[in-house]
Amino acid sequence: MGKKKSKKMRSHVQIGEAAALEMPLASPVKAKTPASALVVPAPPLSRLYAYAIDWAVGGVVSGFPAVLLYAAVTRRNDMFSNLYIFEALGYPWAVGVVAGTLCILAAILYFVVVPLRVWPGQTLGKRIAHIKVLREDGTAAGPLCLVIRQVLVGFLLEGSGFVVARYIREMAVLATRVDVNYYWEIAGMVITLISGILALVLPSRRALHDYLARTRVVPAEGHPLYRG
């Protein structure tokens, strides 16, 4: 009896070993790489090219309402200089604030509404340079991202990079009667310099406004580095 049981046990073991040899080996599980990690950042020269266009065009768009209001209110043919000119000519200081508010709305139209509704993630400058703004995870930048990136950080903190920032500082002086323009402008220059250095030295090429808004700038269709 003992020998029969031993033979049966050996046969079961042999069958089990044979079955194990015939089973295919499980392939190792590979960690998925996030799609956002595969996106190549836009090169600094492309961003600089887009910035130069946006600085010029965005500056004209931003200042246009103040120029129109100045011509309509004063009936003068000379060049509009700043928001202080209204009070200097005898008009209420509030007229300068109204002009500045219209300039801010025009800037928001160019820097927020256009990349939100017209060309997703692109101002005119970015459109020409074939780059665009995306969220950190690679999805389209929404209104909150663009407002944080362009208005809160761009206009208010990195003010030296936008013409409309000058009107914001002048409005603050008119409303508070405290000359904060000089110190605010210097602080904006320093912050802009830091932001530019980050975009140059970091592998992600993300500036300060990109980190605070959780965005990134990537090549768009038509750019040599565009991946589709």
UniProtKB/TrEMBL annotation:
Subcellular location field: Cell membrane
Domain of life: Bacteria
UniProt keyword terms in alphabetical order: Cell membrane, Membrane, Transmembrane, Transmembrane helix
RDD domain location: 42-213
GO cellular component, one term: plasma membrane
TM spans (from-to): 48-73, 93-119, 140-162, 182-202
UniProt main location, coarse: membrane
Membrane topology: Multi-pass membrane protein
One Pfam family per UniProt: RDD
Protein name: RDD domain-containing protein
UniProt source species: Collinsella tanakaei YIT 12063
